Amino acid sequence: MSSHKTARVASVLSGALRLWEVSATVEHADGFLVRAPSMTLRIAPEVPRGWLVFRDDHLLATHAGLPGLLRTLRQELAPHAPRGRLIIGSQPRA
Length: 94
Known about the structure:
- By secondary structure, this protein is α+β, with helices and mostly antiparallel strands.
- It has helices spanning 3-19, 66-77, and strands at 25-28, 32-35, 40-45, 51-55, 58-63.
């Protein structure tokens, strides 16, 4: 995964966590680690494209794109957060 794509996905994950009011960090580690006080989720790229989501080395889900990945993260980390659509797009730099 290119460094630009890695940074973009990390930004999307961090933004979703902020929106859901989840206290967690996103780290790049051969994919991503989402560390919350209650759990750590590992997100691994799936070849040729897509994502695998693990909790405690147990496969939770496989997704072809970011919408499904974000849905799984919300279910695991913020089940209290209202369901809705996240708009994933570029933001102008301030």
